[in-house]
Amino acid sequence: MDIPLKHVIGTIALIGLIIAAGLSYTIIISFIEADVNKKQLNQIAEHVALNLVEIISLVTFANYSDIYAQMKILKLPSDLGGKAYTIQLINETSQNQGYYVQTQLVTRKDITAKSPIPLNSTQTQLKLITNEDGTIPVRGEDTKIIQYSGTVYGGTHDVVVWGWKESLWTTRAGIGLWKSIGG
Q: Rounded to an integer, what distance in angstroms lies between the CA atom of residue 37 and that of residue 122?
């Protein structure tokens, strides 16, 4: 059986065209998905930063220091299109960039968003917890505590922002998880 050369070349060209179209589709869809995820991460970072500033303001302007923290539970999406993400507080005051909230997909480190935390604390010293882990009690709650950390996973339930007036001149604040004692 004789196969003309035109048919072989045509078949190879058609297969190449189908492969090129498939790859183009995959690349375009991947780019669109990354852009959507980045916008969602940016909204989450801005939401966390805004709530953190609100709780810091509330605690800073209180006229007393206390052994208990004030907190606010954040309503955040459990995932972004089936992908887990992290929320992290970053301190780059040494590089004159200040504090900011960074959100990032766990599986793709290149998809990230940042939101600055606009702080102007001239009357009290602010300590934003960015690289410590620990626990802190909350007023009126005997069965739960805040487990704070500089990084939390977004899909975790009961992500909180918290603030605590450590002394008359010092305020501490950060992010964490609202957890049951012993659980």
A: 36
Residue 45, token pair as written in the block: 């970072």
Q: Can you give the pLDDT of all 183 residues of the chain as single tens digits? A: 567 888 889 999 999 999 999 999 999 998 999 999 999 999 999 999 999 999 988 887 776 666 677 889 899 998 888 889 999 998 877 777 778 899 999 988 899 999 988 876 555 678 888 888 888 887 777 778 888 888 898 877 789 999 888 777 788 889 999 888 765
pTM attached to this predicted model: 0.82
Q: How far apart are CA 103 and CA 41, in angstroms?
A: 6
For residue 178, give both structure tokens: 């609202």
